[in-house]
Amino acid sequence: MAVDEAKLNALVGRIVEEFGAIANAPLVVLGDRLGLFRKMAGAGPMDAEAVSDASGVRLRYAQEWLNAMAASGYVDYDAKSGRYRLSDEAAMVFVDEDSPAFLAGGFEVLGALYQDLDKVQRAFTTGTGLGWHEHHPMLFSGTERFFRAGYNTHLVPEWIPALEGVDAKLRKGARVADVGCGFGASTIVMARAYPASRFVGFDYHPLSIETARRKAAEAGVADRVEFQVAGAKDYPGTGYDMVAFFDCLHDMGDPVGAGRHVRETLAPDGAWMLVEPFAGDTVAENLNPVGRVYYAASTMVCTPCSLSQEVGLGLGAQAGERRLRKVAEAAGFGSFRRATQTPFNLIFEARA
Ligand SMILES: C[S@@+](CC[C@H](N)C(=O)[O-])C[C@H]1O[C@@H](n2cnc3c(N)ncnc32)[C@H](O)[C@@H]1O
To answer: Measured from the CA of 133, which atom of ligand 1 is nearest?
Structure first.
């Protein structure tokens, strides 16, 4: 064995840093749930007593939590005054659900990964799948909060206008199906922006549909949105002007079968909008910070979900354009193009 000391030290140093990130992840969830971040946002420098008083969290816990957050660089610490401060930038990341940089939901998703370890371990060794619905509920709420920031920021101003003629149709009044809609974040964002259109969100997961209905009512768009429990291959209705799949095609066991059903349910000039995680076509292209997050989610959630369903293609969250194009072509779509992209998403438009 010829151990390269420098290489070993670099790896150990890096792992210590990763331990810090992983160990602090549940503390971020606590800060989010207990309102610690919220109470600090915009409040300027605070000592631990002030944070404890404002949040109702016991002083000794507030002190220790603040030190962990300061060591993480999430909260600023002034050694002279002994006070802590949540910067405006950190408030955008941890507090402001409407900010494009809101990431607290991602920490909830990470929580689910640990909770579901035994189930995924069983799937690894037996080759069986694990359905979306079989995960810890933190996955459902975390996913909605994590993705909503991106939909709020990009969906109406950038993604829909990148599709041919779709924005104009939606403004006039169109029928849209949002398949695999989860808690309905994307459906609600679209319904708010296009009051003349009608939206129906489908998901096979009853708890998600129930929650989506509640959220649509809270958002005041229940008059133009409905949600129904249905799978991607058998959702009802025809003549949709647009069928959208947000970050869910790769979770499905039979993406080609789902695509065929989309084609059958679209109006002749309708568009299939496909939003998938950003990825290159090769593994080497995806070995970067975003790919690292997505490969992990794909291994723990998306691939097991696909393997739990019929066909069990296991496309993976990092499918990339080439493989997604093949799915659309196999489903009978004549045209398929990348309409736009963000660092986190690829947005495709397919037409018959
Ligand atoms: C990663 S989540 C995305 C949810 C939502 N589109 C969003 O962007 O927030 C994937 C969703 O696909 C749904 N799903 C998985 N397989 C499905 C299928 N065969 N038919 C319908 N929905 C499915 C899951 O229940 C889950 O809500």
So the answer is: 25
